[in-house]
Design goal:
The chain has 233 residues and is an alpha/beta fold. It is built from eight helices and ten strands. A seven-stranded mixed sheet has the order 3-2-1-4-5-10-6. Strands 7-9-8 form a three-stranded antiparallel sheet.
Length: 233
Amino acid sequence: MKIVWNDRSIRWFRDASAYTGFHAQLAGAILSHIPVRDSLCDVGCGSGLIDFILAPDFGQITCVDRDPVAIRSVEEQAGILGLDNVSALCLDGGSLSGQWGTVMALFHGTRELLPHYLSLARDQMILVTHGSAEGSFGPSDRRGTKHIHTSVMEGWLLDMGVDFDVEEFSLEYGQPFTDLEDARAFLTAYAAPMEPEELENYLHQQLQQTDDSTFPYYLPNCKKVALFTVPRP
């Protein structure tokens, strides 16, 4: 399901990242595969949450996304955090030119774009995909479909004839909510349409109450991911 970037979706992603530590843990896994950390390009960066965590470890990070709302968010947050080594480009990845030590794409890409991304990397390309095709939220028959997942990426890389390593693991990446209306809006955005009664039943069964006054509700999600490392030939 395609992400629509707006103030609300950006807030959801930031809240989930901070509450679960998902991007901090993913960043640690990624760093273990990047020995030389002079420059990084994150293609299809979205709101750039992982780049803010990686920034202290790199000389320079370039965030690239074709969505102007996402790029504006990256620029604003980098400024708030005082990250002078993070820059942002509003550009389609296929039009990108330059050279970086590592080129990275998280939950993004196509078979046609991968050779281009690899050509931009001096050392390696890092790819992170969903572990399976099934979406995470909503009843099983209402979940979205993930078009880039482990077996799809493996097929693309085999077709390219490149060497690669893959590491599979799971991380908690659920969604905290400020109130029940926030939870209903989230499910409406990220699951297939449901009747009101079906939505309420799902929330009653899956939503957890917390002791956090800021986020009194939490929708758990153990997210399976695959981390591919592709060395530059």
